[in-house]
Every structure is written in structure tokens, then in C-alpha cells.
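Task: complex structure prediction.
Instruction: return C-alpha cells for all chains below.
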Amino acid sequence: MSTDAGAFMTALTLILGLDPYLLDIVALSLRVSLSAVALAALMGLPLGAALALWRFPGHAALVVALNALMGLPPVVAGLCVYLLLSRAGPLGELGLLFTPAAMVVAQVVLVMPIIAALARQQVQELHQEYHEQLASLGLSRLRMIPTLLWDARLGLVTVILAGFGRASAEVGAVMIVGGNIDGVTRVMTTAIVLETSKGNLPLALGLGIVLLGLVALINAAAYLMGEMARRRQG
Amino acid sequence: MQHKTRIALTAIGLIGLSLAAQAQDGEKYITLASTTSTENSGLFDAIIPQFTEVTDIDVRVVAVGTGQAFEIGRRGDADSLLVHDTAGEKRFVEEGYGAERADVMYNDFVIIGPSGDPAGITDAETVAEALTLIAETEAPFASRGDDSGTNRAELRLWDSAGIEPSGEWYRELGSGMGATLNTAAAMDAYVMSDRATWVAFDNRQNLELLFEGDEALFNQYGSILMNPERFPHLKHDLAEQWHEWLLSDEGQQAIADFEVKGQQLFFPNAKQ
Amino acid sequence: MNDMTTLPVTDVPTLEMQGVTFIHRGQRLLGPLDLQLRGCRRTLVMGPNGAGKSLLMRLAHGLLKPTAGRIHWEGSAPRQAMVFQRPVLLRRSALANLTYALAVTGTPLAQRRPLAREALKRFGLAALETRPARVLSGGEQQRLTLARAWLLKPEVLFLDEPTSALDPAAIKAVEDAVQEFHAHGTRILMSSHDLHQARRLADEVLFLNRGCLVEHSDARSFFTAPASREARAFIQGELVL
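Output:
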């Protein structure tokens, strides 16, 4: 019980005191996860749309693979990216290991399948409704993609939020490729692991509460935006 | 469409560039692969600023188990290593990954257990006797089981006591020191910890320090410089400054001055 | 009405279908069917449910490819537009739905809004410009799809049972729009199962039954003296109702 009470007090003190240690890792967490989600969306949305619009040999296998990758353990993603970015690996020359960029790459690997797979479902539904009309207007499938993505935007916001949730909550991948270096690659989740291993449970839980609050805040903002757009669109 | 594609590609490029730039901006730093025990104790927070003040070089610590630290070194992903597995360190140099290894400091391991001490190890003369008592009473024992320096040291101690630990009571957790202590606290198990992590550890619950002081429990830390012929891309100049500083009077003093809760945790013993 | 067939707008290309067949999952849904549609006329495609009316229009418009046979526009394919039974509108404002169609056809940005507003006004939708298209009433939505078709300046306009879900006032608006398109030189190919509507609009009638073209004749002769037994039964049945 005392741990729980301590955790809330710690969280409160951290937030109200604008603790610089906390602000740094919160800023880095947001930077890494938002960059990862942005990149994953830029790749995953068109990929999902393409899978919704085209049938080709191996299509089913690709869809199943994407769905399976949604459940990829973060540690495995981290390990793969680690082997890729390590000096001894194929992209070692870039010198990205143990940098925020490496963490972004690992989270893109985790988030992209989620966005692509869920976007495929949304776009496919909309395509069934739209495709005769769009084809009648003379649009090729390729040119339908931006229209479908834009008109599915309300649902896609939820898809992207799901991706952000996964990115901001995972610890296994960023721990391996980032190294949890103080002031360089330490984010909310790796800080929580570190404080837990120090036995500093109130601080660890406090950080967890702050993380939860942040994710809730971003979701609330997206929800409000969605509601406003929905009201405008009917 | 083409226009939008171009915008999208530009955006990807810009994000990538900004992150890469962030990663490689002018600041001088080395990447040090070290162990969770040193990082968790707060030693680095105390001594690295002193080193940076003199040399203007930042040290970025990746704190992992000793086994993983060696692997990071073998792949050329760290400029220097500070670990505690003397035999492993010497092999690392012999195999051509490291160029040089030097003693830096030692701390010691202690045996922690539930305050009731069901195996009665408090009265043991040697650590071998203490471990034998635990094995005989089959009292729960939590092992790191992660091929870390601490884990390797623990296994050597069992070995020299003539015991092959196995059975219900011997639990390999595959976790770091802190996580292992948390688990031991939760299941009232014996556990071997480095003193530094133990002193700094807050979630003790029913655990107590039950055995200490046997010389067999001393835990030597060594600093390793990487082999520049094998890893030409590493920052050998900067790493060497760090290595030399650790062994210098200044560095040794900084280590000696570091205390947690009024206790000195690391004892410098570099050969001058 | 039928004197309008003499309107001298004849440069709409002729559509030719030869042996056109459409088979789906082993079932022959249409054809084989031979057909020539010439001139700027108003052609009503009639027949009971499942006769293949929608299929014929989609094949002619190019939304579907025939399993066998040839569909061919004499000369180059004309500009076309299609209005569906259930209006398909984008999740945007009424105005944005129209500017979208203009963007697709490559209209310069500066002209899109003025042209779209003009079309909204023509179809009595000016007051609804900023409303989300999908909250409009059924009749308003269908008028918006007509406005969208208008902006495409089609030489041929396909309408697939455009009034089947509308109330009488909305039906009148759609029929007026069809007349307006035709008066501006657009060839009309429209399916309907409403005989009254066909009498009001048609220059000629295509009568389909079970995937076969049973009759292709002038509207006057179709309604007064249908040549086939099926068409007679169809007209009788409708009149009995």
C-alpha cells in the first residue's frame, strides 16, 4: 500500500516540480515515438491501401504476414534492428546504434505492420463503397489511394493511435538498440525498467503514471479532433 | 498524386536527416559498455562528470550484463568496456578483440537472504560453507542466470564448494541484479548480489545481508581498450583518455570518493 | 415528346456491342448480345429485376469487362459520366465533392470553385454548399451527383435507376435534370422499371429479359405495339398495378 501511495505522490511531485530529468525523458519519448509513428504511417498507409486495392500472387501471404507481425515481440524487433545497425551488421557504417535514430527504426518495425494491416481493412471497406464511382470518374487504382486514405481519415486516426500506443508502451526494442543511455537514449519505458531494477518502485510507478497520463492526453486530443470532424461531416 | 508522393518522400527524408544529425552532432563522446551493477549503483553519475570536466569528452554508458557487454564489444559497437569477469576479459584480449586490459577497482559480493536465515549461513566461516548450507537445506536460492559477471562469479563459487546447484530450490531467473533482488524479496530466497546494488537497493522487504567478507567474494573490475586494427572505426583516442584517466590518481580518487548511504562501494586498485 | 429525337445533335459516337457476354461464377448473366446505339437520343433500359439492366450499363460505361464479345465506340470513346441508384458521395462538403471531380479531370485550381458553385446553383443546391454531402437528404444527394456529372460535360450520361429510392418531388427534379443534360447535347442511357417515367423520357427503349435483349425499338412503337410477348406482359403487368 505504501508503495502505491508513494507512487502517486512521486508522480505528482515529478509533474508539478517539472523535474528536468523527467522532462528530458518525456521529450525524448515523444520525439522517438512520434517520429516512428509518422514514418510508419507514411509507409504503412499506402501499403495498406495498396493491399486493399490490388490482388496479386502472394497477396494472401503478405496480408497474413502483416497480421502476424502485429504480434511481433518488441525484443525480437529490437534484436533484428540491433543486428542490422551493429558495426558488424549490414548498416553498421551509419553508426546509428545506441542513438535515438536506432530507436525510431526499431519502433517503425513494430508499428508499421499495425498501421498497414488495420488501414487495409478500413480502406477495403471504403473501396467497396467508392470504387464504381471513382472508376466512373476515370481514376486508376493508384490515383484512388489518396482519395480513399483521406476519406477514411476518421478511422485511420484510430489506427495511428493504436500504433502510437504500441510505440510508446514498448520497452524491449528501444532497450536493446538504444542502450538506455542517460540523457541520450533513455525514454520513459527504459527509465521505468531501470528504476524497477534499482528497487525504486515508487519512482518507477510514478514514471508509469506519467506515461499513462501522456498517452491518455494524446488519445483525448485525437478523440476530440475526431468528434469535431465527425460532427462537421455528419 | 505525384506531387503528394514527392511531399511524402521529402518528409521522410527530413525526419531521417534530423534524427541522423541529432545522432552525430559535434559533441565528443565515447560509448562504454558496462555492467548494470556499476550503472545502478550511481558510480558513473559520480565519476563521469569529473572526467568530462577535464577532457570535454562525454561517456555514454550502455549498461548490460557482462556477457552482453562482451558481445557488444565483439561486434564493434562500443569504444571501451568496463566489466567484471577477469578470465573473460583476458580471453577477450587474447582473441584479438581487445588491445589492453587493466585492473581498475574491485567491490565485493555479499549473500543476501530472508531475515530468519533458515539455512543458518550467518555463522559460516567461508562462502563455500554458506553455499553448502543453503544447498543442504534446499532453501530457495535466486540466481541471475543471465551469463553476467555476477552470474559467472556465483557459478564459480558453487563449483569451488563442490556443488552442482539444481532442483526446485535453485531458481535461474535470467534477469538483471535489481530484478533478481526484487524477485528474491518476493519469494524470500537467498541471493548473491554485488554490494553496490544491494546498498542502493530500496525494495528490501524481508531481505538482509547475511554473509560477507570472504576474499573469494572479491569482484575485480577491469577496463578494456579495443583493438584498433580490428575495429578501425572506433574512437580509440578518446577511449584511451578515458582508460588512462580511470587508472590515474585522479580517477582512482574519484572512485574511492564515491559513497552510497555513507558506504564506500568500490575500492580502486589500479597498478601504477 | 418524341419529336425531340429530331434534335440535330448527332456527333455523339455510336456504341457497338458484338456478341457481348458476361459470365459470373459459371452463370451467364448477360448475352450474347448485339446492339448499336447511335445518335444523341434518350434510351431507356427496361425489364424486370435481374434482367441485366445494370450490367448492360456498367459494361457500356467500361466499369466491367465482358467475358466475351466486343464493346466499341466508333471513333474515340466519348466523355462519360454515371449516376448510380445509391448516390456515392465523398465524406466532404457538397462543394468539395464537386471541386474534387474537377480536380480529377484536370481543371485548373482557380476555376474549380466558381464552376462548382455554378453547378450547385443550377441544381438548386446553392444553400447547401458547406454542408457535409452525406447528411443531405436522398433527393439532395442525387441532385449533387447530377451536378457532379454536369461538371464532367459528358457526351454520354449513364443513369442506373437513379430515382428508385426517391419521393415524387425528387423524381421530378432528376427527370428535369435528365432533360436538361439532353438539351445540352448529352446522350442518355438510363435504366428504370417505371413505365410512366419511361413514357415521359424515352426516345427509344431497350427491353431486357433474363440477360437477353428482347426488344430494341422506338418508344412510341414499344409502348403502343410491343413486338415481343415478354414486353407485352411487362407493360400489361405494370398497367395492372
